[in-house]
Design a protein that fits this description.
This protein is an alpha+beta fold. It has 2 helices and 4 strands; from the N terminus they run βαββαβ. The chain has one domain: Alpha-Beta Plaits (2-Layer Sandwich), CATH 3.30.70.100. The protein has a 4-stranded antiparallel β-sheet, with helices on one face. A hairpin with a 4-residue loop joins strand 2 and strand 3. Bound molecules: dioxo(di-mu-sulfide)dimolybdenum. The site of dioxo(di-mu-sulfide)dimolybdenum has 4 residues, from helix 1.
Length: 68
């Protein structure tokens, strides 16, 4: 499970946009974005480069915070 801090989400629709973007990354199985904690939880069946996930989030207009 990969956890990423997502920045810039302000409504439930943002959550859907980020979830959809991350689900489209090859290797990703499940994505759950929590607007309250501003975290994305990602499960994958293959190793995924963090940079690819960051790019997917940025491409839809949000950003990923520094790894906690
Ligand atoms: Mo909601 Mo999010 O109206 O970028 S979709 S703020």
């Amino acid at each position: 499970m990969i956890s990423l801090p997502i920045e810039g989400m302000t409504c439930a629709s943002c959550v859907g946009t980020v979830e959809r973007a991350l689900r489209a990354v090859p290797g990703v199985d499940e994505v759950s974005v929590n607007i309250a904690t501003e975290k994305a939880s990602i499960s994958a069946h293959a190793p995924i480069d963090r940079d690819v996930l960051v790019k997917a989030v940025e491409d839809v207009g949000y950003s990923v915070g520094a790894a906690p």
